[in-house]
Amino acid sequence: MNKNKYIALIIGTVVLALCVCALVFINFQQKTEMKEMVEIMEFEKEQLEEEYEELAIQFDGYQTTAIQNDSLVELLSQEKQRVQDLLEELRITKVTNARRITELKNELATVRKVMVEYVHQIDSLDRLNKHLTTENQQFKQQYQEVARQAKQLEEEKTQLAEVVSRASMLEISHFQMTLLNKRDRKTTIYSQIQKLQFDYTIGRNITNTPGMKILYLRLTRPDGEVMQKDMNHVFDFENSEIAYSISKTFEYDGEEVSGAMYWTVEEILQVGVYNADFFVDGELIGSFPFQIHQ
């Protein structure tokens, strides 16, 4: 081998070695760059996952039960589910699938815009509901005040009616019971008692309605039984029928009226305290105890 060929061989070997070194270096550099790119893509994917998770939490923060708009609740639920689905897809997407990750990033931006719009609607509804609630509370307070005033007026009207009723009610101003014998003379001997005489006076009352009236006398024995000649002797009192002993019709013109009522003794009189109750116009106008001794 001559000298020129030897030199050419050496030069070729060196060139080849340099080429190999260059290829090795380029390959190493490409791997390094690829590794760095993958790390960057992994970081971006992690960031994107965190942003999706944060958005999902924001959607969870809106309680759909508090939103009084069915259409908005439905749309909000759909977007919430959409975020969950995109988040699940992002988690299983390979880090090297840059195209899909970019698409998911764009989807995130779109969902955020939609959410901002929904938040504005929710805030508007919330302000409207608060305004309506305030107006409703004011109306409720006004209604309660009107109802209170109406109730007060009704109570005052009832009280006034009761006062007028009491003022117009007749009253027995004088009562006396006298024992009579068979000659209608006063007696104190028990065995001679043939009649009971009840003298009364109805007081003056110009507020009472004048006209013909019936005075009922209800005599109660010491044992609590009502003295009656006829079981059909009843009259209306406080929405029921009660028994009476004697009745008398009289004319009342607002001035004082005096009279007497008589009970013929046909039974054995009990010894003790009796009671005489007088009624006119369905009202008790006098109640008086009296006693019979043996």
What key phrases describe this protein's structure?
9 strands; 2 domains; three-stranded antiparallel sheet; alpha+beta; Immunoglobulin-like; rod-shaped; four-stranded antiparallel sheet; 294 residues; 3 helices; 23% strand
Explain how this protein is built.
The chain is an alpha+beta fold and 294 residues long. The chain has two domains: 3-121; 172-292, Sandwich (Immunoglobulin-like), CATH 2.60.40. The chain has helices spanning 3-60, 70-92, 98-168, and strands at residues 172-180, 195-202, 211-220, 234-237, 240-243, 246-252, 257-264, 272-280, 283-292. The protein has a four-stranded antiparallel sheet, with no helix packed on it. Strands 1-2-7 form a three-stranded antiparallel sheet, with no helix packed on it. The longest helix is centred in the middle third of the chain and has 71 residues, at 98-168. The termini are far apart. The model has no long low-confidence stretch (mean pLDDT 80).
CATH C-level name of the largest domain:
Mainly Beta
- Largest beta sheet: strand ordering: 6-3-8-9
Domain tally: 2
* Shape type: rod-shaped
CATH architecture of the largest domain: Sandwich
Number of strands: 9
Along the chain, the helix and strand elements come as HHHEEEEEEEEE
How would you name the oligomeric state of the polypeptide chains in this document?
single chain
Report strand %.
15-25%
